[in-house]
Amino acid sequence: MFMVLLLACQWSLNAQNAKLKKARYLMESLHYQGAIDIYQQILEKGDDPEAITNLAIAFKKTTEYQAALPWFAKAVTLESAKPEVFYYYGQALQHSGSCEEAKIYYDQYLKLRPYDLRREQLENPCQELEKIADKAEDSYYVVKGLPINGPFDDLGPAFYQNGLVFGAIKEANSRRKTAFFDLYFAKQLGGDVYAFEEAAQFSSALNSKLHEAIVTFNPQETQVYITRNRQEELDPRRNPVVRLEILSAEKSVDGVWSNPAPLPFNDPSYSVAHPCLSASGDRLFFSSDMPGGFGGKDVYMSFWDGVTWGSPINLGPGINTEGDELSPFYHSDGQLYFASDGHFGLGGQDIYKVDDIGNGQWSNVENLGPPINTAKDDFGFIVHPQGGYGYFTSNRAGGKGGDDIYGFKWEAPIAMHAYRFKVVDGVEQSPLEMVTAKVKGKEQFLVADTAGLFQLDIPVGDCFNLAFAAIGYEEKEWQDCARKEAGSMVQEITIGLRKVPVIAKKTTPDAMYFDLEVVDNLSGAGVNGAHIKVENGDCDFSFEGYTDESGWIRISAPSICCSRLTVQADNYFLHKSEKVFCDVNKGEVRNISLQPYVRVSEEEVTSRSLASNPQDTIKVPFKVSAGSVKGDNISYLLNIYYNVGRTSVKKESVSELFRLLALLQENPELIVEIGSHTDARGGASFNQNLSQRRATNIVSFLVGEGVSKRRLIAKGYGEEKPVNDCVDGKECEEEEYQMNRRTEFRVIGRLD
After folding, report:
1. Angle subtended at Cα 67 by Cα 63 and Cα 73, rounded to the nearest 5 degrees
2. Chain CA centroid to CA 673, Å
């Protein structure tokens, strides 16, 4: 009986050892789910240190972190616990949302491995995790799944002939007993990064009864390196490990691939996989668990010596960890991308980048962050030689199968100019309530935030017009064109609204008074809400008020005296006059003309006042350009003269520039475009460049005289905007050509 029990015990021990051996093989082959099943069977019979530790690691490798936690809690109490077990436990806690608790085990790991290159991240895991997650906000990558993905596994894309070669399981059960990876090719459709034709088998000469996936091609695409699982001579029931090797094949002139030949550093005792050739073709990067590494799979490099590939070189502890480093990809710009579950990341396999700084040195490892990386496995990252787009593999949620191939494209962000408006009483500067802010032309209303501020983000280059209104106040418009100069800062704007004026036209019979009519110089219409200010008179007289809807206001004065007058209205140039009303009579009507920079009224009307005001002249001595478009800001002509083909102005034009300078100095809040035009004679490109230089020279003159560059935009239009039909191919009179050879200015915005 004793012998029977002894034999039974020996048989049970042998069975458990066989299971442990099989589970080790599955772990080495990255078949973690199979290993999990075996370890759970072993642990049903009782605790086993190896099974406890490896079951925890296998759950972590499959991103089942909650399932891993209780087993890691046991594993770290074992006398046989290695330092990396504490690190893995920290990772599982971190990816389960227990970042602070993860730090406890990272600290224990660092006590055992004080010189680990990840120390800075492990000492502050919560902050480092937040930094990686925050990359999503600054990322301009658009990630989409590809139509070539099937219901099973698709992985390892490689660029080839305007398409992709990749490994895939397209049939769950073929004539083989189990499903195998084969190589497929899909051609890209047009210039669409995410569109492909239906995939077809890549080569019957390369696809075999074994797994083929994850390839790389030489620059001429005449040589291919393939990852294939090794054909084992032993019974797979005794040796279930699926080790990998790299083979190469050559393409003949008729496009047929040769039988693949193994590389010299393949070995039946370890795996060599995931090849990537450098753009020069003289360096081969790959992943391997060969002896002498840092644990798990490491990234290696081999140099071509002209005859064969040299001995593999481990890329060192800056890149390799005790975890698995897989699928290296070396871009022609000098970046090495690889996947790792050992570096600090979001979970599972994350994709990382290092820069090749020469002499075998690499920069610090950088996690690419979302949306490339997720809490699942992300690997097999490739970037097109011209940059801007590429592909990778992921088992993230939302895919078609287990592993799927995703495309990514870098899309330039739309530069935005952010405005924030504060609306106040124009006199008291106190914030107003119940304000409405409307984007004119779009029927869009802005909503104030909790501080009562209105925010608006405008794409750089776009123009807009806002209208602000409040009960008891006049509506005010504010317009601008978003400019790059604003950068990423929010531009703070204060909008002051005027109270609706109470205008009294009746006066006592004995009071001294006179009427003032303010009209639009172009249309003759009265200007409503013009701000009138009379001050510093010889008789100590001052007055302030607003015109009514007809443009009229009555001014009461103690006596007749010379005064200083300022007239200001929205969409009009400021008007200033010195020593006016010196000879005004009681009850007389005086007329003031304002020059608009926005066409307020298209219809011409006749002023009700027949009075003239000889001592008060219009302050904008410029003519409206024939090229001024109805409804747009008004363009005014500058009488600027140039020698033929030259950009410097003639001497007789200087006085005109000083008149423009005076206008800008009197209206310091206005932003003005200086536009230069040519006739259609000469080449379009020459005319464009000539007009741009002429406009730029005028801006340079004004800046030199003290005008802020922020207020000036130089724009050369060349021959694009003629004011008549003198275009290419038509003979015209010199006067007609001259009409198109013009320089203009127009108001396009305000600084306030």
Report:
1. 110
2. 29
DSSP 597: S
For residue 155, the model assigns a pLDDT of 93
Distance CA 703, CA 661 (A): 10
- State the pLDDT confidence band at 235, using cuts at 50, 70 and 90: very low
**Average pLDDT for 291-312:** 93
Is 3.40.50.410 the CATH number for 141-410? no
End-to-end Cα separation, the chain, in angstroms: 102
What residues are paired with 25 via a beta bridge? none
Q: What is the pLDDT of residue 174?
A: 47
CATH topology for 416-497? Immunoglobulin-like (2.60.40)
Q: What percent of the chain is modeled with pLDDT above 70?
A: 87
CA atoms within 13 A on the CB side of 153: 16
> Which amino acid belongs to residue 232?
E
What's the CATH number for 18-116? 1.25.40.10
We find that the CATH architecture of domain 501-618 is Sandwich (2.60)
Q: Which residues pair with 410 in a beta bridge?
A: 141
Give the CA distances from residue 389 to residues 163, 332, 383, in Å, rounded to whole numbers and listed in that order.
13, 14, 6
Report the residue count for the chain: 752
Neighbour tally for 171: CB within 10 Å: 13
Whole-number pLDDT of residue 503 = 52
Task: Please give the order of strands across the beta sheet that includes 491-497.
Answer: 454-459, 416-425, 491-497
Tell which residue, 345, 166, 137, 273, has the closest CA to residue 353: 345
Q: Which residues contact 307 (CB under 8 A, 6 or more apart)?
A: none
E strand or H helix that includes residue 454: strand 454-459
The β-bridge relationship of strands 416-425 and 404-410 is: unpaired
pLDDT of amino acid 343: 94
d(CA 285, CA 275): 6
CATH of 636-750, one of 3.40.50.300, 3.40.50.1000, 3.40.250.10, 3.30.1330.60: 3.30.1330.60
Per-domain residue ranges of the chain: 18-116, 141-410, 416-497, 501-618, 636-750
Sheet holding 463-469, edge to edge: 444-446, 436-439, 463-469, 476-481
Residue 377 CA to residue 343 CA, distance in Å, equals: 13
**146 half-sphere exposure, CB direction, 13 A CA radius:** 34
Place of tokens 């990816």: 95
**Could you tell me if 62 and 32 are in contact, meaning their C-beta atoms sit under 8 angstroms apart?**
yes
How large is the average pLDDT for residues 471-496? Answer: 77
Residue 143's DSSP bridge partners are: 408
- Pairing mode, if any, of strands 512-520 and 589-594? parallel
- For 604, other C-beta atoms within 10 Å of its C-beta total 10
Question: Model pTM?
Answer: 0.58
Three-class DSSP labels, 30-64 = CCHHHHHHHHHHHHHCCCCHHHHHHHHHHHHHCCC
- Same-fold call for 141-410 versus 636-750: no
10 Å CB burial of residue 716 (0-12, 13-18, 19+) is buried
Q: How many Å separate Cα 555 from the centre of its chain?
A: 58
Task: Indicate the residue type of 686.
Answer: F
pLDDT at 182 over 50: yes
* Geometric angle at alpha carbon 592, from 589 and 593, rounded to 5°: 140
Burial class (CB in 10 A: 0-12, 13-18, 19+), 572: buried
Express each pLDDT in 26-57 by its tens digit.
888 778 888 898 889 888 888 898 889 999 99
Q: How many CB atoms lie within 10 A of CB 677?
A: 26
* Residue 159 structure tokens: 């660029």
Q: What is the band of 642 on the pLDDT scale with cuts at 50, 70, 90?
A: low
CA distance 562 to 535: 9
Measuring CA to CA, how many Å separate 113 from each of 77, 117, 232, 340, 642?
18, 10, 38, 19, 77
**Token pair belonging to 501:** 């004026």
Which tokens sit at 428?
């008291």
